[in-house]
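Translate structure to sequence.
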């Protein structure tokens, strides 16, 4: 009996060229997980309006299409890893929140992954991805959901007056 291919979808709240932990770490995680041919790995990243891109991305870098941004991400990744990754990249609609200094997902981003590929979801900064999530429950859509927290909230609290 042939073993079913494992599907891993990694959802994150940031993407290159914004060099944050939530853009770089998930990208590397996806690239290295995709080296195993027994897995199909999809990195799910936000697509921002031109206005939001100008707020977030450095050096006035902007993209006219998701395909243009994907090309940049793949070239950057290959330059750092020395190999061409077989990972898939999909985009969800996002909006930059000036108050939160974070990208928020718009709509049901679980829909980016077809039901037949909804095996494992890795949520990078799950608290950000679920602030305004009004779609299908993650655990209903995916067999397994893993959260990776990047922000050390205790350290932030310690820095506050009367923490």
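Result:
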């Amino acid at each position: 009996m042939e073993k079913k291919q494992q599907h891993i979808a990694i959802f994150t709240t940031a993407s290159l060229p914004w060099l944050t932990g939530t853009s770089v770490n998930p990208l590397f995680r996806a690239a290295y997980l995709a080296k195993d041919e027994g897995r199909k790995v999809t990195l799910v990243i936000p697509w921002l309006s031109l206005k939001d891109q100008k707020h977030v991305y450095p050096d006035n870098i902007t993209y006219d299409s998701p395909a243009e941004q994907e090309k940049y991400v793949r070239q950057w990744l290959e330059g750092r890893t020395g190999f061409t990754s077989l990972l898939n990249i999909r985009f969800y609609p996002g909006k930059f929140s000036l108050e939160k200094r974070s990208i928020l997902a718009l709509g049901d981003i679980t829909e980016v992954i077809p039901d037949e590929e909804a095996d494992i979801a890795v949520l990078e900064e799950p608290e950000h991805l679920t602030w305004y999530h009004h779609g299908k429950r993650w655990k209903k859509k995916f067999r397994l959901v893993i959260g990776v927290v990047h922000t050390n909230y205790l350290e932030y609290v310690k820095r506050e007056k009367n923490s």
